[in-house]
Amino acid sequence: MTQSSPGALAGIRVVDLSRILGGPYCGQILGDHGADVLKIEPPQGDDTRTWGPPFKDGVASYYFGLNRNKRVMRLDLTTAGGREVLLALLAEADVLVENFKTGTMEKWGLGYDILSERFPGLVHCRVSGFGADGPLGGLPGYDAAIQAMSGIMSINGEADGDALRVGLPVVDMVTGLNAAIGVLLALQERARSGRGQFVEAALYDSGLSLLHPHAANWFMSGKTPQRTGNAHPNIYPYDTVATATDPIFLAVGNDRQFRILCEHLEVPALAEDERYATAGARSVNRVALKAELEAHLRKHDGKTLADTLVAAGVPCAPVLSVADALQHPHTLHREMVVEMEGGYQGLGAPVKLSRTPATYRHAPLTEGEEFLPRNVGAA
């Protein structure tokens, strides 16, 4: 929705000092749901302005994807004057989001201990690499490095291939989500206590949090998880399979779905075979099962079969390109592509609220510093 009706966070004021991905993504989520977000950039701007191509008016698409529903001003926090301006802004703010290296805010006299005394209701959210203490405390963190250290890369890739980075910055993005959740939790608690608190979302913690079911498997069995390509480590068939045309992904999670699949492939006896009759047996005998399924799947057009199976209750999907996914009719129906004045296009908010839906009010690069009045959205 592009209208300016109050969102769930209307009246909440956010100063976003963060740059790159995790913090800005958190700020965009808060802004989409009505918070008044002011993004403070250093004099040279957020680094991601240069992370292209493609570029529009000299600013990279990467920046446009993370900085909607914010107004922008530049401020040099290395100077006393810049810090005084920031303090004046924080006097009117509910939330501070930052992702400076641990110790930077403290060096500037802006650590949580000082800010919490001056602004007791402020929720101070820090996105960090590893947290402030411990063996790796204070070190900078980067998405790909955390994917490597957290074990994510070790279980991503073909079984006989090398460990691979997931093809999107999943650690940065889930850290941004965790930061947004943390801010909302702190605001909810503040409604009871009247006090803000320090919220930290670390890339390292967030990377580890993504290890289900591999961590659960290791805790129970002690066996180090291995790469399985597109296949699920616990369930089968939960894998990409070949057809006569394009591959499809089968996501069969129970015996009933497997029986339906076998009936549609006109091999009902396969569902009665003791090697495949139960979920556990299918997982153990996955290599033989994949060969048998693909022998029958190669008689079918992939897209047509996927449409038929999913209508019958078998979870599956064609393997689409990014372009095809973004132009899919259901993508448009779900309002997951946003268009704004000036030619801006971006991904829509994935959380849908019935009375206070997300709104899109400020395209990236909107100039301005004045917070909205406190009574916006009040009954």
Automatic annotation (TrEMBL):
Gene Ontology MF term list: CoA-transferase activity
InterPro entries: CoA-transferase_III_domain, CoA-Trfase_fam_III, CoA-Trfase_III_dom3_sf, CoA-Trfase_III_dom_1_sf
Coiled coil regions, renumbered to chain: none
Keywords in alphabetical order: Transferase
Pfam families in the cross-refs: CoA_transf_3
Membrane-traversing stretches: none
Protein name: CoA transferase
Organism: Cupriavidus oxalaticus
